[in-house]
Amino acid sequence: YVTQADPPPPASGYTLRFAPRMRPENKPPWHAPGESSRPMKIEQISVTVFNTTSKKVNDTDGHTHPGPEHDSQEALLTITDDEGNSGYSFGSSESLRPYVIDNYVKKVFMGEDPMDREKLWINLAKWQRGSGANLTDRTLAVAEMALWDLAGRALHTPVWKMLGGFRDKVLAYGSTMCGDEEPDGLATPEDYANFAEWMVNRGYKAIKLHTWMPPVSWAPSVKMDIKACAAVREAVGPDFPLMLDANHWYSRMEALELGRGIQALDYYWYEEPMDEHSTESYRWLAEQLEIPIIGPEYAYGKFHTRAEWIATRACDISRVGVADVGGIGPSMKIAHLAESFNMDCEIHGGGAGNLAVIGAISNTTWYERGLLHPFIDHDEVPKHLNSIVDPMDADGNIPMPTLPGLGEDINFDYITERTIETH
Ligand code: MG
Fold first, then answer.
1. 348 CA distance to ligand 1 centroid (A)?
2. d(CA 339, CA 334)
3. Closest by Cα among 400, 342, 368, 423 to 99
């Protein structure tokens, strides 16, 4: 790739990894003939806790709903190497608290080559067993994604392309918040139907409902769930893909009744009606229903659990989200595991990491965009970003990010202004 127009490589100390920062825009990386790379070294790991604003609140059971605008804490993990490359990843201040960063992440990562993501992830994951549940899959995910972001920024390449690169856009499904008791919110089956019509007009090519859960006084209710699903089917017509993410703690018989109800409405998948730690309950359910069962989403155990679900026929579609299984690397293992069984793997949740996985695999169809609610504007840019990572066009497509790394367009000035603490 060295052409007459390219500047000559420096005489010494030059490696391939320097090239992207020195090469002209839109040219492939170049390096001196015969030159090999030397390992980089992680030199600094820091967490910036900052205030941003949010219009979402959690109810007493942890479900998200619209609320008044308020200050909300977030944290940014920064990993920097000895060549000045940095990678960034957002997490909760709790999952990135000093105890966890000092005792696990720094202990395993410092001084190591940030490009050795597999080694670093496995060595960090091994600490989970003895951590007394302090080191969670969430922390693993944030730490691992910062490594991906660093590598992508250093190589001037989006992470989805580094992972393989399969598609440059993906269709989104609109994923609703859980039901509530707000007038004109998501309080009735008619509310869901009205909101579904709005989503169709906005461009969404599929819709997934989250129905009512406690603390809604009368929830959960199989009958009401079926009514909401029927109202939405009526609103969008017979050929529009619809999915249900049911209440997570139904009994077997309730789950079967609900599954039969939405099967008759020609729903496309049935998600998490029961506690997922009982694989046998899902095998029992899948055996009796035609509608595809998707899962597991939140069950612990990363790729091991997904393998068990596939092997025991507890699911028809596999499921993984980067925050659920400890990052992008383990998510790719699960997607490829499913592919080996000719099985689709649909990705849980939005955001940069999940989008990167979607861009790199063939056996997925949708991006989960949300959570959506009539009172929330999902297209509004959070103040700590310059743009959202998942803009959607009128045809329901989300383009893969073109920025190097994970593709988050971070507003560093805002974060600096609103920093509460750094550790
Ligand atoms: Mg779900």
1. 6
2. 8
3. 423
**CA 347 / ligand 1 centre spacing (Å):** 10
CA 264 to CA 136: how far, in whole Å?
39
pLDDT of residue 373: 98
CA of 319 to the centre of ligand 1 (A): 9
The dihedral sign for the CA sequence 416, 376, 295, 281 = positive
Query: How many A from CA of 191 to the centre of ligand 1?
Result: 21
Neighbours of 156 (CB within 10 A): 18
Q: How far is the CA of 326 from the centre of ligand 1 (A)?
A: 17
Instruction: Provide the pLDDT for residue 17.
Output: 39
Ligand 1 centroid to 369 CA: how many Å?
12
CB 65 within 8 A of CB 178: yes
Instruction: List all residues 6 or more positions away from 18 whose beta carbon is below 8 Å from its beta carbon.
Output: 10, 83
Q: How far is the CA of 72 from the centre of ligand 1 (A)?
A: 24
pTM attached to this predicted model: 0.92
Closest residue by Cα to residue 139 from 93, 70, 86 = 93
Backbone angles phi, psi at 399, to 5 degrees: -75, 145
Local structure of 337: helix, strand or coil: helix
d(C-alpha 12, C-alpha 42), whole Å = 22
- What's the 258 CA to ligand 1 centre distance in angstroms? 16
Separation CA 82–CA 111 (nearest Å): 9
Query: In angstroms, what is the span from residue 210 Cα to ligand 1's centroid?
Result: 8
Q: Distance between CA atoms of 340 and 234, rounded to whole angstroms?
A: 37
Q: Would you state the pLDDT for residue 317? A: 98
Which of 88, 75, 155 shows the shortest CA–CA distance to 352? 88
Report how far ligand 1's centroid is from the alpha carbon of 406 (Å). Answer: 23
The rounded Å distance from CA 13 to ligand 1 centre is 49
CA 337 to ligand 1 center in whole angstroms: 20
The pLDDT tens digits for 383-417 are: 999 999 999 999 999 999 999 999 999 999 999 99
DSSP track, 352-393: HHHHHHHHH-SS--EEEEEEE-TT--TTSPPTTEEE-S----
